[in-house]
Write a structure and sequence with these properties.
By secondary structure, this protein is an alpha+beta fold. It is 25% helix and 29% strand. It has three helices and five strands, in the order ααβββαββ. β4 and β5 form a beta hairpin. The structure holds zinc ion. Zinc ion is lined by residues 28, 30-31, 33, 35, 78, 80-81, 83.
Amino acid sequence: MSKLEVCDAHPELLRAARYLGMVATRPCPVCDKHELRLLAYVYADGLKHDSGRPWAVKEALVLASRTQGSACYVVEVCTGCSWNHLSEAYLARTAG
Ligand SMILES: [Zn+2]
């Protein structure tokens, strides 16, 4: 893939990465700069309009663990070159 094809982060995703993103421990695999950020999205019916909005990773994991049937997606975003990638996906299980 060309750099243009992979570097397609939505402007809102880039903004969220700048404000909420946790600095990744490794450099961006595309531009090799240390601009890589991690953020997360949580989807669940019970969250209403909070469903699908970006969160800091730690907050998202707490929210997902409290929300029945939620799905949490951790996304890597490079604020340098706009590369982005779905890093991990979790499905919350209900305790008990
Ligand atoms: Zn990059």
